[in-house]
Amino acid sequence: MGFLSKLIGTSTTKEEIAMEKLNIGIILGSTRQGRVSPQVGNWVKEIADKRGDANYEIVDIADFKLPFVGEGTGEEPGLKAWPEKLANLDGFVFIVPEYNHSITGALKNALDSARDEWHNKAAGIVSYGSTGGARAAEHLRGILGELLVADVRVHPTLSLFTDFENFAEFKPADLHLNNVNLMLDQVIAWSGALKTLR
Ligand SMILES: Cc1cc2nc3c(=O)[nH]c(=O)nc-3n(C[C@H](O)[C@H](O)[C@H](O)COP(=O)(O)O)c2cc1C
Hints:
The chain is of the alpha/beta class. Helix content is 40%, strand content 20%. It has seven helices and eight strands; from the N terminus they run H-H-E-H-E-H-E-H-E-H-E-E-E-E-H.
């Protein structure tokens, strides 16, 4: 709720919501040892931070140590911390590697490990793989539909052959910069619009 509304006890208007800075999580979609997703996520964050239009943060699903849904004791701290983290975010950028023509099991489990906290938010996808991670990204779009996450159209696709050295060191071609900014333009616009629904 906006400061003025708190002071005089009125509900938040759409205009006030629009003035608050959005919180956008850049979600790392892989957890394996030696993964490259942190390099890709940090690159997106650097570009995003220069815009100054939102609070961008890296969200590493590995930090939450989520058990597979329905397994474990139910007392694992990550089970509480993960939806709490998502609840504080207005939108997402998913960093998506392609594993066997889909997203990673870790990302699917993280998506399954919350529900309402995803709803009525927007997301962009940055994917990578031998064909730019396109097949994984399309799978993710189907899942996001069920979670009421509005995925934007502009989709930077990074090639393991031309945007990485030895498939390990991230050296993105210049042409991706414009696409990342266009994707963020759409994420910010839709995240702001959808905030008024929540
Ligand atoms: C289990 C597994 C399956 C993979 N399957 C594919 C695939 O189907 N298509 C593809 O383009 N790359 C595939 N790759 C290559 C990954 O996209 C590449 O290793 C990428 O760096 C993985 O992201 P990460 O380093 O963040 O884990 C696969 C990698 C792994 C580990």
